[in-house]
Amino acid sequence: AIVKGAEVILLASDHTTSDRAIQVASVNNQRLHLMSGDSLYTPKLLRVAGMSAVGLVMAVPADLTRSPFRQKYTSLWGTTDPFTWRTALAYDATQALITALRQAPSRSGIQDVLSQPNFSTTGATGTVQFVPATGDRKTSVHLITVSPVESGAKVTYSFKSLPF
Q: For residue 69, which of 85, 124, 139, 146 is within the disulfide window of CB 3.0 to 4.6 Å?
């Protein structure tokens, strides 16, 4: 890719190919800019690729870098592994279902509550709301990068939110 004049590598992986994408990030060793989707937003990327992944930009459905839910998760489970956007959005879906069940405990009642234009509940990623016409969640894409975190002589890596 470098010989051909590439400036960026897009790692378009999914859960079945993310290990190979992490290997590409490692061997790239910051020579080309890296971009990816949400499949690489995992603690494994930070552990395996580490410094080689610094600067990688990824689009994800939830920004968990400043989520208070992360502290709750860590205190409950004793670790942030495998805390990912999937964990947070599953929690959000559960909170929406609980809120709807409390208001109307039937299958049709839940559907009616969730489709109300004023429906909202609090989840791991903030306010959970839905678009009444489609049922899709009201949300936006977030850009995240890998950044070094220095603590004395030790360097670890974490995800950092990018302004969008």
A: 124
